[in-house]
Amino acid sequence: MDQDDYEKNRNYWKYLKAKLKREGSQLGSGTTQLKLLAPDGKKRQTNVLDAAGIVELAKQFPGKKANRFIEWFINGEDTIDGKSKQKAYALFDSSLLDSIEVGTVKGLQQIHAYLFGGLYDFAGKIRQKNISKGGFQFATAIHLKSTLAVIEQMPEGTFDEIADKYVEMNVAHPFMEGNGRATRIWLDLILRKRLQKCIDWSKIDKYKYLQAMRKSVIDSIDIRTMLKEALTRKINDREMFIKGIDYSYYYESDGTVEQMPPGLQE
After folding, report:
1. Distance separating alpha carbons of residues 17 and 12, to the nearest angstrom
2. Is 165 exposed, middle or buried (0-12, 13-18, 19+ CB in 10 A)?
3. pLDDT tens digits along 90-124
4. How many angstroms separate the CA atoms of 255 and 146, rounded?
5. Contact between 259 and 67 (Cβ < 8 Å)
6. Which residues lie across from 232 on neighbouring strands?
7. SS3 for 31?
8. What residue spans define the domains of the chain?
9. Class of CATH domain 77-252
């Protein structure tokens, strides 16, 4: 039966509410009712979802179209992530790539400032507040300056030394936001300079990576093994760099949907 988009969405919404009611659930706690103009010209009470609710609803539509919608909705060109991602893409062809200090705190600040300049007022600035995630508190702000100075002096002669330096910088989390995206580029630049290698991030599963990073606070063996197995000598390959950016931003997605990098969905 041919239906326009309005009818399809309306009928699905009715079906979903009826289905949840039969299951003993009730949809509505995450919505707000607003009077919106209906096709008949009258303003009617309408359930309106916030951004998180829209993502949750999209999970009910399996397939490529839903994933593409979420990719657009979360990382659209008008979002902070979307804009910083476009900047990250351009970094490969930018002269800035060769001028970034490798392995230093200043170099990491340069990367962060480039990715988030004009998007966050703290772009490239070391945080002055304490932050935590998932119950874990990163390096305290009062000791952050001295912590970063110690990390900067860590050796970079072997892969294990570089990986340990990366882990310590992650524990420090020097910025209010955008640490992972900036630090993964920082890591690749160190590997390029010291070992003439970089990470093929497409070989690293998101959830295994996040689990290994959480565990690295106590034991870094898992993340070191994971990164080592993904090493490649394609340091001058633009496609490898772009793919790495896609995966880096994918790692930072909030997990409400299996948001694979563009072109990799089934």
Report:
1. 9
2. buried
3. 998 888 888 999 999 999 999 999 999 999 999 99
4. 34
5. yes
6. 198
7. strand
8. 5-73, 77-252
9. mainly alpha
- pLDDT for res 2: 59
**Three-class SS state of 218:** coil
pTM (global) more than 0.85: no
Q: Tell the residue number behind the tokens 């039969």, with chain if given.
A: 22
Compute the 3-state secondary structure of the chain and give helix, strand, coil in percent, each to the nearest 5.
55, 10, 35
User: Which of 162 and 17 is assigned the larger pLDDT?
Assistant: 162
d(CA 241, CA 220): 25
Contact 202, 240 (CB under 8 A): no
Run of H or E residues at 137: strand 136-137
Count each helix (H run) and each strand (E run) in the chain, helices first. 12, 6
Residue 91 in tokens: 């970094």
Q: Are strands 231-232 and 136-137 parallel, antiparallel or unpaired?
A: unpaired
